[in-house]
Design a protein that fits this description.
Length: about 650
């Protein structure tokens, strides 16, 4: 019999609607029942494409005995982390504090009826094994402790809440300087894996914001080591199993050091940032392999993650028919039967498809070198054949922030290769966001099945502002710039801490949780404060404002104080700080002939600021009656010219 999740919109929650667990969605009803029935809340947070979420669901949440324990002694609550990034972030911080730094999904927490956590972790097996407590035994222990010594659990929850609040205590502002950037570069050099690229041992996340930081610093410092680190990592990922050699696009992370065995989920946000990293590498080096990888990733998104109205879906599942990665695995027999003996064998050799396999007897395709053109021409047939299998489920939620990331990435890809389909897809996605996820300057987190989710958070506003600025730079259509400025003003009013600096995770009108944090550090993706700083700096270069300048100064001081504690963990902030200390070029175009502007998106780098003056002004006149360009970097300007190269 369906439970309370049957009326939800999230595909992840709907997957659990037939569980024997009597799940509640997050909301007042769950807390009211917890208070009335005097029970703790069992909070489980996950997402559709998460493999271990599926494992825990099969092992535990569809187990009759475990379900009975949950229903009898707890109020079980299921949350889709992508629908509620605020809940996910706040409770992940608590989970890490409870476990001493560990965290992940599925996230499992026990809360008081007031929503304060007192115990938690990530995946739990159904029964205790090899020194790990099983979920059944854990539920029994918490149940008994709640009945016999509730005061100690409540006290622990209060102490944890207080500790988390103290950890967010304000620091004296610090003037951001190059020493912070050099500190992060030193940490990256120390953490770099010289054998395989990337940082640390497995599991390895792509961390594209680190690669973008390295490439930016190479451009500014000329230190070839930084570019070499980025290129080695990009090359290892593009050739490895983490990249789908048949269909394009990157998986979330690799479980091994060499990028060969992926965790097979594909997420929109990761692919957006990776497109930007590969495009930047192409711009720096002219290496066509980097552009090919970016285009392969963009084409995957256009083909498999684009909804009928133009919004981009959030993810593809890691599992197919209950098997992790089964959709992507190949055998030599598969390729020979499809392509014939000669071509099949050649592609097997090129992609490392062997009789022994590399994953459960079958092979994860990975390149040993660049594919020659005659083998690349075989890939569409393999992709079409693979599509006849049962594909992984798509999480067809459209997330505002992740669409913003992809819009910006596709604009940069368009400007690198000139192929109009990427810009067209970016514009369609933006039109979808305007129609479905924006009312005036109020944004919303998600849209699915005709309904939108809760009010947007900081990351949504930051990513959407950057997307609109990228569209402005790619099209020179003024309405994108005007909307970006309006959203930036709303974002400052709703999220900024005027007293201390820093942007809160969620706005003043949203549901108020037991914490209202201001996240400074990056994770697998850049942090919201860094994204917003970058967006405001770019906007300030285009539309200077004294009020915004004051906000930027306070924000830089607030975040620099935190970056001193962990420079490498603030790479996205330091990327923005570097552009504050040494701004990208600003080009003011006094227009004589509007047709002269058509080539500018392909000439100027994405980080350059472009101001259009039509008509020209006394300060910026025309030379010889022609469109004239005034190029400045910081406080230094070049003589005006009538042609840019």
């Amino acid at each position: 019999m369906p439970n309370r999740l049957s009326g939800e919109l999230s595909p992840y929650l709907l997957q659990h609607a037939s569980d024997p667990v009597d799940w509640f969605p997050w909301g007042e009803e769950a807390f009211r029942c917890a208070r009335a029935e005097d029970k703790p809340i069992f909070l489980s947070i996950g997402y559709l494409s998460c493999h271990w979420c599926h494992v825990m669901a099969r092992e535990s949440f569809r187990d009759g005995e475990i379900a009975a324990l949950l229903n009898e002694s707890f109020i079980p609550v299921k949350v889709d982390r992508e629908e509620r990034p605020d809940l996910d972030s706040v409770y992940m911080e608590a989970c890490r504090a409870l476990t001493g730094g560990g965290g992940g999904w599925p996230m499992t927490l026990f809360l008081t009826p007031e929503g304060r956590p007192f115990y938690g972790g990530a995946y739990f097996p159904p029964r205790s094994r090899r020194g790990s407590i099983g979920l059944r035994e854990l539920l029994e222990a918490v149940r008994d402790r709640w009945r016999e010594d509730r005061a100690s659990l409540t006290e622990h929850a209060e102490k944890l809440t207080e500790a988390l609040r103290k950890s967010a205590a304000e620091l004296p502002p610090h003037e951001g300087d190059d020493a912070l950037i050099q500190g992060a570069l030193w940490q990256l050099l120390c953490a770099y894996d010289e054998a395989y690229g990337g940082f640390g041992e497995g599991p390895k996340f792509p961390m594209p914001h680190l690669l973008l930081f390295l490439m930016q610093q190479y451009e500014k410092r000329g230190d070839g080591r930084l570019l070499a680190m980025a290129e080695k990592t990009l090359g290892a990922m593009a050739a490895g199993g983490i990249f789908d050699q048949i269909g394009g696009g990157f998986c979330r992370y690799a479980v091994d050091r060499a990028w060969q065995v992926p965790h097979f989920e594909k997420m929109l946000c990761d692919n957006a940032l990776l497109i930007r990293a590969y495009v930047r590498a192409f711009r720096l080096t002219g290496n066509g392999e980097w552009l090919d990888t970016a285009k392969g990733t963009g084409d995957f998104v256009l083909r498999e993650l684009t909804g009928p109205e133009g919004g981009f879906y959030s993810a593809l599942d890691a599992d197919s028919q209950g098997e992790e990665g089964g959709f992507y695995l190949l055998t030599p027999g598969d390729l020979r039967a499809l392509l014939g003996e000669k071509d099949g064998e050649a592609l097997c050799e090129a992609l490392g498809v062997t009789g022994n396999g590399s994953f459960g007897g079958r092979s994860i395709p990975r390149r040993r070198g660049p594919l020659p053109p005659e083998l690349r021409e075989l890939l569409p047939a393999v992709r079409e054949w693979r599509a006849s299998r049962c594909p992984p489920a798509a999480d067809d939620k459209v997330l505002c922030g992740w669409n913003g990331l992809m819009i910006e990435a596709l604009c940069e890809l368009y400007r690198a290769c000139g192929e109009a389909r990427y810009l067209a897809a970016a514009k369609r996605s933006q039109a979808f966001l305007d129609a479905r996820l924006r009312e005036g300057t109020q944004l919303f987190v998600s849209f699915r099945a005709g309904k939108r989710g809760v009010r947007a958070g900081l990351g949504d506003y930051a990513s959407e502002i950057s997307a609109l600025l990228a569209l402005w730079a790619s099209t020179l259509e003024a309405h994108y710039l005007e909307t970006a400025e309006a959203l930036a003003d709303r974002g400052v009013r709703s999220f900024f801490d005027e007293e201390n600096g820093g942007f809160f995770l969620y706005d003043r009108e949203s549901e108020q949780l037991f914490l209202r944090p201001k996240e400074s550090e990056d994770g697998a993706l850049p942090g919201g404060n860094s994204l917003m700083l970058r967006a405001l700096l770019a906007l300030q270069a285009l539309r200077p404002s004294e009020a915004r300048e004051e906000i930027l100064a306070k924000q830089l001081g607030w975040q620099a104080a935190r970056a001193r504690l962990d420079p490498m963990g603030h790479a996205a902030f330091l990327t923005a700080l570097s552009d504050r200390l040494e701004p990208p070029p600003k080009v003011t175009a006094a227009v004589g002939n509007p047709a002269d502007l058509e080539a500018l998106p392909f000439i100027l780098p994405p980080e350059a600021a472009l101001v259009i003056l039509d008509p020209p002004t006394a300060e910026y006149p025309l030379l010889e009656g022609k469109t004239t360009y005034y190029v400045c970097r910081g406080n230094t300007c070049l003589p005006p010219v009538t042609e840019l190269r």
